[in-house]
Design goal:
The mean pLDDT is about 90. The protein has a single domain, classed as Glutaredoxin. A 4-stranded mixed beta sheet has the order 2-1-3-4, with helices on both faces. The protein is built from 10 helices and 4 strands, in the order βαβααααααααββα. A hairpin with a 2-residue loop joins strand 3 and strand 4. The protein starts with 6 loop residues before the first strand and ends in an 11-residue tail after the last helix. By secondary structure, it is of the alpha+beta class. Helix content is about 55%, strand content about 10%. It catalyses: RX + glutathione = an S-substituted glutathione + a halide anion + H(+). It holds the Pfam family DSBA. Its EC number is 2.5.1.18. InterPro entries: DSBA-like_thioredoxin_dom, GST_Kappa/NadH, GSTK, HCCAis_GSTk, Thioredoxin-like_sf. Belongs to the GST superfamily. Kappa family.
Length: about 220
């Protein structure tokens, strides 16, 4: 009998730099580990809001000055080690807090519902635009540029832009976000491996080694050759 592939869900938001690191590493490993990798675009703002009520102040890490200082160094080190072009500076924390990724995540959700083969390149382009080029991804003209860069036709892009204000897309994003919370997510990325009939939640991009060990696969570093 053919071995069933382990399903690994990645709940992510393009406003999160750690999500980008986790996304790229899982993309590199999906064939090496032969996992069934499923991208689950969700809304980080919704997770923070929902879990804040339970955790009494689940604040974004950047809100704590010492933590922000550490994150700055941490993301720079990880970007280099993971070979992902995240470029971060101090003013990025204000930039992130002042940017809503809701429109972008609805756009990504719309592609997931219509042409999922574009989900990976489109998500990557959003991260590149926001975290490498420091553009404001909440602006429609930037969303258009991202779509063009990811190889979407202007007809398809137009269709997606019309979809983002529909209940179908809004509800789908909300449902995915709620699903992440149900698994126990309180931030991004949230990675859920379905193994031996149960879900295993891993938070962050630096727990993929542990994920490998749970599903019985060998970890070869963040850039397996």
């Amino acid at each position: 009998a053919r071995m069933r592939r382990t399903v690994v869900e990645l709940f992510y938001d393009v406003v999160s730099p750690y999500s980008w690191l986790g996304f790229e590493v899982l993309c590199r490993y999906q064939h090496i580990w032969s996992i069934d990798l499923r991208f689950r675009p969700a809304f980080l703002g919704g997770i923070m809001q929902a879990t804040e009520l339970f955790l009494k102040g689940n604040k974004p890490p950047a809100m704590l000055p010492k933590r922000a200082e550490y994150m700055l160094k941490d993301i720079k080190r990880m970007a280099k080690y993971y070979q992902v072009p995240v470029r971060i500076s101090e003013d990025d924390f204000q930039r992130v807090l002042g940017t809503s990724s809701l429109g972008a995540m609805r756009f990504i959700t719309a592609i997931d519902m219509t042409q999922p083969q574009y989900l990976e390149p489109l998500s990557r382009e959003f991260w590149i635009r926001f975290w490498s080029q420091h553009e404001d991804i909440s602006q429609p003209e930037n969303i258009l540029a991202v779509a063009r860069q990811a190889g979407l036709s202007s007809e398809l892009t137009q269709k997606l832009l019309e979809m983002i204000s529909t209940p179908a897309v809004k509800n789908r994003l909300k449902e995915t976000t709620e699903e992440a919370i149900k698994y126990g997510a309180f931030g991004m990325p949230a990675v859920v491996a379905h193994f031996n009939g149960e879900p295993h939640l891993f938070f962050g991009s630096d727990r993929l080694e542990l994920l490998g060990s749970i599903i019985g696969k060998k970890w070869l570093g963040p850039v397996p050759s």
